[in-house]
Write a structure and sequence with these properties.
Blueprint: H1 6-49, E1 53-58, H2 63-79, E2 84-89, H3 93-105, E3 117-120, E4 123-126, H4 130-143
Length: about 150
């Protein structure tokens, strides 16, 4: 049958080759879109995971606290828009308890309990002055290299 119908054989062979080629092309497109989706998902998860938080415990009547918050709002927030700055006024028992929990977590002596106290990843700062302001800026850069 094949010898007698060379035209049919050529036509069937050509159709098989076209079909295989189309299948391979579609499969590569499918893998490419899966690869893009997968890498985008990983990138998004990394961005979420790398969301840096700066946690500031302060007292409403503390002048150093006001200076630190002013520094953060005017200098650090515009410089680091992807960093989440959280402020906790320790004017309620719940907020004081939260601050105490951080002191325990960071192994800080309760003798050092003061405001402002600022936490960035594994680092913390008690009090506020120009040296601490510089250290806070450097600590944010160190812990979130994507910002550099």
């Amino acid at each position: 049958w094949i010898k007698n119908n060379k035209f049919q054989f050529a036509l069937i062979s050509l159709l098989i080759i076209i079909f295989i080629g189309m299948s391979i092309k579609e499969k590569s497109r499918l893998f490419e879109s899966e690869r893009k989706t997968s890498s985008e998902t990983i990138h998004q998860k990394n961005n979420i995971a790398k969301k840096l938080r700066v946690i500031v415990f302060h007292s409403p009547r503390c002048s150093s606290c006001k200076d630190e918050i002013k520094f953060i709002e005017k200098k650090l927030k515009p410089k680091y828009p992807d960093v989440k700055f959280e402020y906790h006024a320790i004017d309620t028992p719940e907020k004081k308890r939260l601050m105490l929990d951080y002191y325990v977590k960071y192994n800080i002596s309760l003798d050092e309990f003061a405001t402002p106290t600022t936490f960035v990843e594994e680092d913390y700062f008690i009090g506020y002055n120009s040296r601490i302001a510089k250290e806070l800026d450097l600590t944010i850069k160190k812990n979130f290299p994507a910002l550099n």
